[in-house]
Amino acid sequence: MREEIANMVVNNKLKKFIAKKREEEREMYLKTAKGQLEFFMSNMVPATIEDYEEWLKGFIQGSGDPTHYYDYPMDRVVDSFFIAIDDFEIIPLFGSQSISVIVPRGVNFLGGELGHNRLYFEEDYDYKGNIVPVYINIIYNDISLKRLKSVNSNKA
Asked: What CA–CA distance (Å, rounded) separates 2 from 11?
């Protein structure tokens, strides 16, 4: 009986030791850029064109004015759009690595440096970042259509 109790005590100490080591390893991993990115992205799911379209509709109806008009469909860039599924801090990403995040009501942006990332808030249809794009397959009003045609005619 004493031997069984001694084994149980040893096993319990060993389990605690292993759990502590795993937590230390996790903390060290999160200090690396790759670890930070994976942790950040674990709070995101891919967005669809319809998800962004819905946000953009609310933004424009609330008197928002898109900043960029592209003559190509959103399909080209939709893989850089995500929806936050949990409260999050952002990490700075730049250039082609940057992403657009739709932040649903009830999910909180906890801060962090944006870099070139963009955040689109459903709570008040506001945004953080440098652009609110309109794509050729997402046009909501005559103004958007005229601006898009203007951009296209300037390229000719």
From this structure: 14
List % helix, strand, coil for the chain (3-state, nearest 5).
Answer: 45, 15, 35
Q: What is the pTM of this model?
A: 0.72
Structure tokens at 4: 């069984």
Contacts of 151 (CB under 8 A, 6+ apart): 69, 70, 71
Two structure tokens written together for 134: 């309109």
What pLDDT is recorded for position 19?
A: 85
Burial of residue 55 (CB within 10 Å: 0-12, 13-18, 19+) is: buried
Distances (CA, A) of 132 to 33, 52, 111, 117, 136: 27, 10, 20, 11, 14
Taking only the tens place, the pLDDT of each residue in 12-60 is 787 888 888 888 877 775 567 677 788 888 999 999 999 999 999 999 8
DSSP state of 88: B
Cβ atoms 69, 148 nearer than 8 A: yes
